[in-house]
Amino acid sequence: MSILARIAEIESEMARTQRNKATAHHLGLLKARVAKLRRELITPKGGGGGAAGEGFDVAKTGDARIGFVGFPSVGKSTLLSNLAGVYSEVAAYEFTTLTTVPGVIRYKGAKIQLLDLPGIIEGAKDGKGRGRQVIAVARTCNLILIVLDVLKPLGHKKLIEHELEGFGIRLNKQPPNIGFKKKDKGGINFTSTCAQSELDGDTVKSILAEYKIHNADITLRSDSTADDLIDVVEGNRVYVPCIYVLNKIDQISIEELDIIYKVPHCVPISAHSRWNFDDLLERMWDYLQLVRIYTKPKGQLPDYTSPVVLPDGRTTVEDFCLKIHKNLMKELKYALVWGASVKHNPQKVGREHLMVDEDVIQLVKK
């Protein structure tokens, strides 16, 4: 029996099972089984080497990477060529783009790589079409743009979300606040710091038993579901921000456009007529959360043309030095920083100091 057939069988059993407190335990077990089978689909067992097919992934360049995901013929290639000036083949039939087409834009001093991925079809997570490779590249992106046709958006949106979720990509979510630590002995130690609506000690134990984990510390710090626990145990989930780009707005009325604007995480555009690109770029910048640091040579004015761009959360002076060169840290005596992250301008700081967007830094060597 193939993996897909087993997944389909378990999913139909889950659909037949009524959801209540008595069946929560059983449903948790089934969810864990599906997650394990899905992981086998993504990483096939054995077989080591072998031909990997055409290279699909593109070398990572620039400060951030944005992938365009969507069904065939929704305008991903048109959007890329109009944004980045890169020619990605455009035609009126489906599946025009067959491999990843990269492009680069400069925005607010940062180099952002855009990837036009081939169209995905329903069942991509199960390996249909080029779906598996497409979604594998999407996992490496800092931001995913789901490009939708404005005339048939909601059905497509749900399908694409379902495909990405099945591949371990969580869109616009924070990692669940669950502490999980394996140990050698002592059984399952389960604590929760707040009331739980779905998980209890028995359900947690049965899900972990499915993974053959019998000794672990589990701490639930928020109201979590069985899916959250499975995500933490699997440990291979990526949490990516996502913007829904509704293309072809030149084909709808103003009233419909007003309704679309109220949907969260949505930007309506027309890739062909280049409408609303500035709003899209601004929204992309907000979601990427990049931090620009300007450099200042001694005795000269700061260089505001080419900032060093760091990802949010890794903005210490040490991160800044490592981004430029790994030997710079050994020679650093201290740094002078101007900007919003310090009380005095300039202020002498050490390697642990956290910088914010548009700070100016001068390094003083030993």
From TrEMBL:
Keywords: Cytoplasm, GTP-binding, Hydrolase, Magnesium, Metal-binding, Nucleotide-binding, Nucleus
UniProt domain TGS: residue ranges: 289-365
Gene Ontology terms for molecular function: GTP binding; GTPase activity; metal ion binding; microtubule binding
Entry superkingdom: Eukaryota
Compartment(s) of residence: Cytoplasm; Nucleus
Any one Pfam family match given in the protein's UniProt record, by short name: TGS
GO biological process: positive regulation of microtubule polymerization
InterPro entries: Beta-grasp_dom_sf (IPR012675), DRG (IPR045001), G_OBG (IPR031167), GTP-bd (IPR006073), GTP-binding_2 (IPR031662), GTP1-OBG_CS (IPR006074), P-loop_NTPase (IPR027417), Small_GTP-bd (IPR005225)
CDD domains: DRG, TGS_DRG1
Ranges for domain OBG-type G: 64-289
GO cellular component: cytoplasm; nucleus
PANTHER family xrefs: DEVELOPMENTALLY-REGULATED GTP-BINDING PROTEIN 2
UniProt name for this protein: Developmentally-regulated GTP-binding protein 1
Organism: Eleginops maclovinus (Patagonian blennie)
